[in-house]
Design brief:
Elements lengths: L11 H9 L10 E7 L5 E8 L7 E9 L8 H15 L4 E7 L3 H9 L3 E11 L2 E11 L1
Parallel strand pairs: 3-4
Antiparallel strand pairs: 1-2, 2-3, 4-6, 5-6
């Protein structure tokens, strides 16, 4: 889970951080960042993930960003469906991620994608706040 304020959506700086940060024991070779373009070529979303983390054959979604102008149109669902299909071709059998417990919309979205609660983590300090994280997972 990367550092960002829970009451502010991730911005370009957070997205850029995904290219530069890695989970413990991982390198640039384990990082994958996918961009989603509109029909006009405009970047409207990104998904950053780490392979074989936290265990072999499991991938960790570090960040999913969708341009606010394209939300609510099924863009994230389409991106995730394609991503999950691709993961199967890579030998993955599980996907995990963490969501701030207070991010009810995020929790609903991921539960709608078949994710289930694995554990609660935290509290983690981000800014001046303490946050609880919901770690979710789904089989592929």
């Amino acid at each position: 889970m990367r550092r960002r304020l829970a009451d502010h959506p991730p911005d370009a700086a957070v997205a850029l951080e995904e290219f530069r940060s890695f989970p413990p024991g991982r390198t640039e070779a384990d990082k994958f960042v996918f961009g989603l373009k509109s029909a006009t070529g405009e970047l409207v979303g990104m998904l950053a993930c780490d392979r074989n983390y936290p265990q072999a054959r499991s991938w960790w979604i570090a960040l999913l960003l969708i341009d606010p102008a394209h939300r609510g149109q099924g863009v994230a669902k389409t991106l995730c469906a394609g991503f999950f299909s691709w993961l199967k071709t890579q030998g993955a059998d599980r996907v995990e991620l963490a969501v701030f417990a207070e991010n009810k919309a995020g929790l609903r979205f991921w539960e709608g994608q078949g994710f289930m609660l694995v554990r609660t983590a935290g509290p983690v300090s981000i800014g001046t706040k303490q946050h609880s994280l919901q770690v979710l997972a789904r089989a592929l």
